[in-house]
Write a structure and sequence with these properties.
This protein has one domain: Glucose-6-phosphate isomerase like protein, domain 1 (Rossmann fold, 3-Layer(aba) Sandwich), CATH 3.40.50.10490. The chain is about 55% helix and about 10% strand. Strands 2-1-3-4-5 form a five-stranded parallel beta sheet, sandwiched between helices. It is globular.
Length: about 210
C-alpha cells in the first residue's frame, strides 16, 4: 500500500512536497535497512511530535509485529513460562529515540554547558554515521535543533528537516527538508502530523509486511 500517495491524495496542499516526503522515507528506509537508528528532536509541540514518531516506530502501528521466531525460541528456552509470556507480547520495532526524554543527561548538559547544547550533546553521544537526525521546528530556526543538526552532519548522519515557512536554517542544512506550506505554528503542526504518520506507515509496510 502506497501510504505516501494516500497522504498526497488526502492533503492536496502537500502535492508539491511529494518528492521531499519520498526522499525523507528513502533516508529512513536506508538507515533502518543498514542497522541504523533515528534520533528526533523538537521543542514544545514539536518535541511531542518527536515522541509520537518514536511511539509509532517502536511497536505495532497498524500491523502486528510479532517477535522473530528465533527470538521467541530463545525466550522460551530460558524460561518456559515467562518466555512464552514475553514471546506472545513483545513486538518488533525500529530503533528511534526522542532526545527530549533523557532528563538526567539533558539537565546536566543544560546546567554545565547551556540549554542550547542539550540536543547536540545527545547527537554526539548516541549518533553514528548512517543514522538519521530528524529535526522538527515550525520555523526551522530553533537554535538547539539547528546545533544538533550541525553536530549530526559532522558525525556523518543524514538530516531530515520537518518545518514550515521558509524552512529556516534547518531546512538549508538538511539532506531532505519537508517544508509544509504554512506560516502559523499551529497550522504547520497540523500538517506535520499526517506527514510523519505516512512515513511511519510506509516504514511499517516495508519492514513488517507479513
Amino acid at each position: 500500500m502506497d501510504y505516501l500517495r494516500q497522504l498526497i491524495n488526502r492533503y492536496p496542499v502537500l502535492v508539491p512536497l511529494e518528492g521531499d516526503v519520498r526522499a525523507a522515507y528513502g533516508l529512513l528506509e536506508g538507515a533502518f535497512s543498514s542497522g541504523g537508528k533515528l534520533l528526533a528532536a523538537g521543542n514544545g509541540g514539536s518535541s511531542a511530535d518527536a515522541d509520537h514518531i518514536v511511539g509509532e516506530l517502536g511497536k505495532g502501528f497498524v500491523k502486528k509485529r510479532p517477535a522473530l521466531p528465533d527470538f521467541q525460541a530463545a525466550l522460551c528456552a530460558l524460561d518456559s513460562d515467562t518466555g512464552a509470556l514475553l514471546a506472545a507480547n513483545l513486538e518488533c520495532g525500529l530503533p528511534a529515540l526522542a532526545l527530549h526524554a533523557h532528563t538526567a543527561l539533558a539537565t546536566a548538559t543544560a546546567n554545565d554547558r547551556g540549554a542550547e547544547f542539550v540536543y547536540a550533546q545527545q547527537v554526539y553521544c548516541y549518533g553514528a554515521a548512517g543514522d538519521v537526525f530528524l529535526g522538527i521546528s515550525t520555523s526551522g530556526n530553533a537554535r538547539n535543533v539547528y546545533l544538533a543538526a550541525v553536530t549530526a552532519k559532522a558525525v556523518g548522519m543524514k538530516i531530515i528537516a520537518l518545518t514550515g515557512g521558509t524552512g529556516g536554517k534547518l531546512g538549508k542544512i538538511a539532506d531532505t527538508a519537508v517544508i509544509v506550506p504554512e506560516n502559523e505554528t499551529f497550522k504547520i503542526q497540523e500538517l506535520h502530523l499526517p506527514v510523519y504518520h505516512a512515513l511511519c506507515l510506509a516504514l511499517e509496510e516495508r519492514f513488517f509486511s507479513t
